[in-house]
Amino acid sequence: MSTGDAENIQQMDIRDEMRNSYLTYAMSVIVSRALPDVRDGLKPSQRRILVAMNDLNLGPSSGRVKCQKISGDTSGNYHPHSGEGVYLTLVRLAQEWNMRQVLVDKQGNFGSLAGLPPAAARYTEARLSAAATEMLDDIRRDTVDFVPTYDQRLTEPVVLPSRFPNLLVNGSNGIAVGMRTMIPPHNLAEVCDAVQLLIDEPNATLDDLMGCIQGPDFPTGGIICGQLGIRQAFKEGRSTIAVRARTHFEQEKNHDVIVVTEIPYLQTRDGIREKLEQVVREGRIKEISQIVDLTDRTIPAWQVRLHIILKRDADREVVLNQLFQYSPLQTTLSLNFVALVGSRPKQLSLKEILEEFVRHRVTVLRRRTEFLLAEAKKRKHTVEGLLIAQINIDNVINTIRQSPDRKEACVRLQSLEVASELIARALGDHGFQSFLAERHPGAEAPAALENYGLTAKQAEAIVAMQLGSLAGLEREKLGEEHRKLLEDVDEFLRLLSDEAHLLAVIRDEMDQLKGKFGDTRRTEINDEEVGNVSKEELITEETMVVTLSHRGYIKRIKLDSYQAQNRGGKGIMGAKSDDEDPIEHLFVASTHDYLMFFTDRGKVYWQKVYDLPLGSRVAKGRALVNLVRLEPDEKIFHCLAVRDFDGERQLVLATRNGIVKKTALSAYSRPLRGGLIAVKLDEGDELIGVAIVGPGEDLLLASANGMAIRFAQEDARSMGRNTRGVKGISLREGDYAVGMVVADPELNLLTVCENGFGKRTPIGVVDHDEPDTEDTDTGESDPSAVEDAPEETEAASEETVRSSMKYRRQKRGGKGVIDIRTTERNGKVVAVTAISEEDEVLMITAGGKIQRVRVADISQVGRNTQGVRIIRMGKDDRLVSLARVPQEEIDEDAVAEEE
């Protein structure tokens, strides 16, 4: 060793050197290979593949090229790793069972859900998918930063512009040194809704965001057990969830068969089958006879069809639970929302991921707008020169002809002065003002000089101008281009003047993306929590107002969102509504209640109230088809809140044609995903009322023309679910039933009409000694006699009122008695409900307004009357629904009057 070498030796602690070297290596792996960027959701290898394909112009409309070429260009130009590793990454971007929105459009053998490997890169071809072009859009408009590649020959983007939150839509999975990420895919339409919500309400809570994004939406479908794990992951960025295969039962030759159609995410069909066969061989599940794989090309590539044939004496429910316990038909995913934020790994919540994306898009749009503004101003400057030249064409031509060469012609044109009047005539008023602003920068209201010269760029453009551009049509095109450039410049300046304008553009982009790529959820989320934690125990019991629109949008709102108003008020907005989607149903229920949804096909579905989306008063809500698996074109016609399905009470259903059907409530206690048959409906008939009755109670059925009949529930015999029922009321021509209540003698019957008028009348105790001589239907009432009558604001004498307030019991199937006068002022009856003096009621109009009124403020009058104004209706609006708020659910702090 020489003396010079000895002088260069430094003493250091090997522990420090190892620590520093390891940390340097770890950060290199984290940043350069394993973790995605929160902005575009891509790892460097994935991003470089898309950029290389974009360089090759492999758009969705171009022809596909060999993946060998794509992999070679990627590794040769951008990615300093093996082409084989690049190809495997390319393959994953094309597999619809791994990506919720594939970024590569494939052709050839790219593997399968069975777990088979792809063909070699020389046999397969690919191009960019339509979704990938949305991520690369505007990349050449200075929207993102570029850095030199590993060999310094080219430059590559640090991040893609990405019009949609790819990190959430396609998720990411990777292991770095000391950390890992596992972000599941989500539904693009739901993610776009969440972005729009965050733009509209920057302070949106996790509950608000989960009203848009239900949870992960895996490309392979399946079922997520419970929402607690999802909520924790969205809140803290870390959690575990249980995912099950989608199964159903079939019968084959007297054998029960468990059919598996969708498997958990990241599992393979062959791997599951091998594990099932192993479980059977080991004797852990003895009731399985055979496992048959019937998957073929008739089903989508992300689905399977496995038949698990059971032995004759097997209990299929027990076997299915054993399969979930012992096989990959149920797996646990450890979610870990880790991504790079500013080149640093960070664990993120759902809201933070969305905020980072919105922040990225604002930057991209601002840079794109600045780029387009500069380009538009540059072109406008050139077009201004051409227009000025055309207005002074003789002097321009003479100057060019007298010049010895092209360079001298440009110099002489710059010294040519043009009068301001000619420039103003050539450019127009708006164009001339823009011209002055550029020629006099900084001046607020610049005064025009007598003459102006041409700039060097304008002179060069004039010298290069062809003679054909002097034709009249070409001059008009040039003028139209100038006007369009002025509009573009103004629009670009408007966008840059306020960030709210850029956010509005992002909001519109989300609508466009939903229209292009939005689809329904594949993954179902049920209420079955895996483990010892009961979801219901974690939900606070509180009273909710539930609304359901004509098009099937449902939401729940806290009851205290509506303060009580005086009778006759205008109400407050309760839902965003329009003429095409009015609110049809409104009711009050506890978060722990079951909601029974009755459809136009006579079926019934279940849903817990706390599983409905929680929204604001003016929110539209969420489509019910995303919560309840309705059949095509099936529509909800009525809803009922139920806490317990006991065996003593009966469920009574009433139809528009006056038919009633009674069935034991316990018959509906076992809900099925596809619903149960509740009633057999005649053609053209529909449900209008549902009630739960006990022994000895009466029912009261009301019609649109103001008739009502009260009869004992025992008059209708109990039937099975799939039956038609019996006649409840005889209806005149043109009349139809609108509502049914339990005739509680301690309560009043509140009847409301479509024009906002109504009344309450005591239901009363049945007097069995009274002869059945009271007149019933006396024919159609005479509107001319009462339509101009004043509101009945004063009660009649006690004796008169008492005699006119009786709903006497009749035999089922009678015509009933007059309940309210349906005059031109009142309109048809739309709803009835049984209420007490201490209750409050909620009313909703087709326009979406909701009013909460104290029952005590509504006058108690006789049956054969018009009633009083309860809610003041807007023009072309009408009352559509009514719900009772019982006394025990009224918040004393929420009854302040709101005029």
TrEMBL record:
The alphabetical list of record keywords is: DNA-binding, Isomerase, Topoisomerase
Q: Which reactions fall under this protein's catalytic activity?
A: ATP-dependent breakage, passage and rejoining of double-stranded DNA
Note the InterPro entries from the entry. GyrA/parC_rep (IPR006691), Gyrase/topoIV_suA_C (IPR035516), Topo_IIA-like_dom_sf (IPR013760), Topo_IIA_A/C_ab (IPR013758), Topo_IIA_A_a_sf (IPR013757), Topo_IIA_dom_A (IPR002205), Type_II_DNA_Topoisomerases (IPR050220)
Keyword Calcium listed? The answer is no
Region annotation Disordered: where it falls in the sequence: 762-803
Annotated active site residues, numbered on this chain, are 123 (o-(5'-phospho-dna)-tyrosine intermediate)
Its name, as the record gives it, is DNA topoisomerase (ATP-hydrolyzing)
